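[Q] Does anyone have a clean structure-token version of this?
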Amino acid sequence: MPQLQILRLRSNMFSGHIPDNLTCIVSLHYLDISGNNISGNIPWSLSDLKAMTTVISERTAEDYNFEESIPVIMKDQKRDYNFQLYKLLVNLDLSSNSLTGHIPEGISLLIGLTNLNLSSNQLMGEIPNQIGNLKHLESMDISYNEFSGAIPSSLSALTSLRHLNLSYNNLSGPIPSGPQLQILDNQMYIYSGNPGLCGPPLSRNCSANDGQQSGLEDMNHMSSVYLGTSIGFVVDLWIVFCTMLMKRTWRAAYFQFIDMIYDKVYVQVVVRWARLMKNAQDDAP
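[A] Here you go.
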């Protein structure tokens, strides 16, 4: 069905992987398979969805005719879009499944996207910096996953962005500054559930956080040094002890060396003591 424009399979019990041959549907600009049990990785081939790699203008949108309004989950709200607005909506919703792996960098080629929802999966890794290429993105939700690393500064280049949700991941580091990110609503909600993030709008200070982290790293480093030195001393001591225990000649030479050192020290102490006593007697009246 290469002319299929809308594919909504949400809230069913579908399982398995996302099929690669979805890219054969060249007119598909709305894909919603959320609320199922789809597993596996997000295939790189999704970047070949032709209708999502172009920006739909008012002129080209005349080819998309729908007589009824259709409910769409966007910006954390359920809204009814009539065909006049719906024909301009480019949607990729894979939320509430069991997807794993990373976000493929090729997703940045879908420059026509207006809504991207990958929330409530098991995705991990860093958010690709190329996400900033999606200039027409109005809503992005990747909450409730296992993303880590820093928030890419390219997010501040999404001038059309009106809704962002990065909550409940393992993101860390300073929150990027930028006029577009600062005008978003519910600032605290966007970043909640990421204990490693710092900087405005959060109350956690990045410089203090970095200093504490540096101190912890120094403490761990010193502990490693002390542990390594102690282990090396014990190992060397046991090597010497075992060698002397097995080699009789080495053992005899060792004790002779100790006796010689003892005699030299004893003689030096006696001589110095005698000199001190003699000097004391000479100084006496």
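[Q] Thanks! Anything notable?
[A] The chain has three domains: 6-204, 206-237, 247-285.
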